[in-house]
Amino acid sequence: MKPKPAPSFLPRRIVSGGQTGVDRAGLEAAIAHQIEHGGWCPKGRRSEDGSIPSRYELVEMQSPDYPARTEQNVIDSDATLILYQRSLKGGSLLTRRYAVRWKRPYLCVKIEGADPAEVRQWLNLHQPNVLNVAGPRETSSPGIQQRALTFLLEAFAIPVDSQE
After folding, report:
1. H or E segment to which residue 42 belongs
2. Residue 123 and residue 131: Cα distance in Å, rounded?
3. pTM across the whole model
4. Which helix (H) or strand (E) holds 17?
5. What's the chain's Rg over C-alpha atoms?
6. pLDDT above 60 for 48
């Protein structure tokens, strides 16, 4: 008889900066899985599509600049998951640099062809209480928000073979 895999670990809280794209996918996945969510966003709840919707429980920084909130979300997290498409660049690359600077575990996942089980294994290994989810915005990677949400929903789901 084959032993059942250990249940997947889920963080207590998921944070992001609230930008369109991967940030919002992380918040939506948290809401869907009834995981506490939040994080830091720029002053004025600034994002590329206007003001970040109030449904996302984010705290405004004193600064309207994106790098400040990016760094604060890394600092306040136990680990960072970065989802991306073609290559790591811009704010996603900066997020990884902050994770290295603040000595936080991070995982960079190129969504195309990625296996959500890799994220489950990484979460089981590091067991972050607070997980920062980051990646490109929608205008720099059209369609990334929906692809990231689908990927995260699967990554955070308990695999069928581990359920009783």
Report:
1. none
2. 9
3. 0.92
4. none
5. 15
6. yes
Give the C-alpha separation, 143 to 33, whole Å: 22
* 164 confidence band (pLDDT: 50, 70, 90): very low
Task: Give the β-pairing of 50-51 and 46-47.
Answer: antiparallel
Which residue do the tokens 């429980």 mark?
57
The single residue listed with the structure tokens 């062809």 is: 113
pLDDT of residue 157: 86
Show the tokens assigned to 59: 């705290």
Instruction: Give, in degrees to the nearest 5, the angle at Cα 43 between 37 and 44.
Output: 90
- Average pLDDT, whole number, for the chain? 92
3-state class percentages of the chain: helix first, strand second, coil last, to nearest 5: 40, 20, 45
Question: Whole-angstrom Cα distance, residue 110 to residue 107?
Answer: 10
Q: Output the six-digit token pair for 162.
A: 């581990």
